[in-house]
Amino acid sequence: MPTKKMKEFLDSHGVKYVRIEHSPAYTAREIAQSLHIKGKEVAKTIIVFIENKMAMAVLSANHSVDFDYFRKEIHAKRIELATEEQFKDIFPDCEVGAMPPFGNLYDMDVYVDQHLTEDKEIVFNAGTHSELVRMAYEDFARLVKPRVIRLT
């Protein structure tokens, strides 16, 4: 079951989505491979500190954040990767590292890599290491209002 917070949010906005259960997997790349989903379609959520403020960076499983591009795109002096210890309490309804890319539900800015906007659908962790949600990218963008930039 997706996190209660996310499920209620999606349902209250009439968003159509599909739950996908799978055996436990801990990286977006591992999930994509085990479910035979293209890596570019599976979104991973990375928690970062942008000048000491926590935010989400969301990108395809088959990409890595280029912090130089990221800093230039948003004109930040410093962006650092957050550790699980630093963010685990922010997502009490999620398994550590399996948070969905809905920063708006956790009072966080969300930055989405432009590559994710190229597909009609987005697939992401639903709060556990054994469940995903697939939904229209258009619905995700409308609800989350991420800032689309070049992250890779």
Note the gap between the termini. 31 Å
CATH topology-level fold name: YbaK protein
CATH architecture: Alpha-Beta Complex
* Largest sheet descriptor: 5 strands, mixed
Label this structure with key terms:
152 residues, alpha/beta, 5-stranded mixed β-sheet, single chain, 8 strands, 5 helices, YbaK protein, 3-stranded antiparallel β-sheet
Explain what you see.
The chain has 152 residues and is α/β, with parallel strands linked by helices. The chain has a single domain, classed as YbaK/aminoacyl-tRNA synthetase-associated domain (YbaK protein). The chain contains five helices and eight strands. The chain has helices at 4-12, 28-35, 67-74, 84-87, 137-144, and strands at residues 17-21, 43-50, 53-60, 79-81, 109-113, 121-125, 131-136, 147-149. Strands 4-2-3-5-8 form a five-stranded mixed β-sheet. A hairpin with a 2-residue loop joins strand 2 (43-50) and strand 3 (53-60). The protein is globular. The relative contact order is 0.25.
